[in-house]
């Protein structure tokens, strides 16, 4: 859930690829949730929710070799 590129509230779908990803080199946080849901500029700080609408994490970063929006998304776990 977020506001990518300032176009308005948007919901994207994806799967959780890993729940305790470490040493991704994007923050001092110890653990991240890895997702394939689109995390574009404007989605950081948005909710990562499960199919029941429960908060799982806060979208925080994308790792991309090209520096673009395509890559691996990461969220900070809510617990």
How would you sum up this structure in a few lines?
Keywords: Hydrolase, Protease. By secondary structure, the chain is mostly beta strands.
Layout of SSEs?
Blueprint: E1 16-21, E2 32-35, E3 47-49, E4 55-63, E5 72-77
Antiparallel strand pairs: 1-2, 2-5, 3-4, 4-5
Protein name: Serine protease
GO molecular function, one term: peptidase activity
Organism: Rhodoplanes roseus
Description:
- There is one protein chain.
- The protein is mainly β and 79 residues long.
- It has a single domain (4-77), classed as Trypsin-like serine proteases (Thrombin, subunit H).
- It has strands at residues 16-21, 32-35, 47-49, 55-63, 72-77.
Structural class: mainly beta
Average pLDDT reading:
83
Arrangement of strands in the largest sheet: 1-2-5-4-3
Tally the beta strands: 5
What kind of oligomer do you see?
single chain
CATH architecture: Beta Barrel
Specify the CATH class. Answer: Mainly Beta
From the spread of the alpha carbons, the general shape counts as: globular
Helix amount = under 10%
Keywords:
79 residues; Thrombin, subunit H; five-stranded antiparallel beta sheet; 35% strand; Peptidase_S1_PA; hydrolase; peptidase activity; Serine protease; protease
């Amino acid at each position: 859930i977020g506001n990518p590129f300032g176009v308005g509230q948007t919901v994207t779908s994806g799967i959780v690829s890993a729940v305790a990803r470490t040493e991704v080199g994007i923050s001092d946080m110890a653990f991240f949730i890895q997702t394939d849901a689109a995390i574009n500029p404007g989605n950081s700080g948005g909710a990562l929710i499960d199919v029941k609408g429960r908060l799982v994490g806060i979208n925080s970063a994308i790792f991309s070799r090209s520096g673009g929006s395509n890559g691996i998304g990461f969220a900070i776990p809510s617990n």
